[in-house]
Design brief:
InterPro entries: ASHA1/2-like_C, START-like_dom_sf. The chain is of the alpha+beta class. The protein has a single domain, classed as Alpha-D-Glucose-1,6-Bisphosphate, Chain A, domain 4 (2-Layer Sandwich). 22% of the residues lie in helices and 43% in strands. The protein has a seven-stranded antiparallel β-sheet. A hairpin with a 2-residue loop joins strand 6 and strand 7.
Length: 138
């Protein structure tokens, strides 16, 4: 098992960052906007599911929300679509907290796949969080 955490500062209030994580319209602005066929489905409630997928790129992710503590924390399972099949879901925690003129966003990813160092995931999270940090949120 491998854990890693990444943090970014977003120039928007916590409530706006929460909506960016928990609405289809919000997440579509920064998750994979470079993949125009990506579909986003999410039900941000305990036991609710999410499913983000780009069929053209052959990638996607899905899982369930285990914690929805508005506007502070999301916890969810993480299973890739395409590529190697995961036997056990990973666990992701997203923490939001007010930070000066914006919001501190920390993503902690627990990798539960044997032999996976998490480097690809770390790069992917870095990419999406970098986009979130520069996206103008209402």
């Amino acid at each position: 098992m491998t854990d890693f955490a990444l943090q970014r500062h977003v120039q928007a209030p916590v409530e706006a960052v929460w909506r960016a994580w928990t609405t289809r319209e919000g997440i579509a602005t920064w998750w994979w906007p470079q993949l125009p066929d990506t579909t986003y489905e999410l039900e941000p409630r305990v036991g609710g599911s999410y499913h983000f997928e780009s069929k053209a790129a052959g990638i996607g992710v899905h899982g369930e929300f285990s914690t929805v503590d508005e506007p502070r924390r999301l916890e969810l399972t993480w299973m890739w679509i395409g590529g190697d099949v995961q036997d056990v879901p990973d666990h992701v925690r997203v923490d939001l907290r007010p930070d000066g003129d914006g919001t501190s966003v920390t993503v902690t990813h627990q990798v539960n796949q044997p032999g996976d160092t998490g480097e690809g995931l770390r790069q992917g999270w870095g990419d999406v969080l970098d986009r979130l940090a520069v996206t103008a949120l209402p």
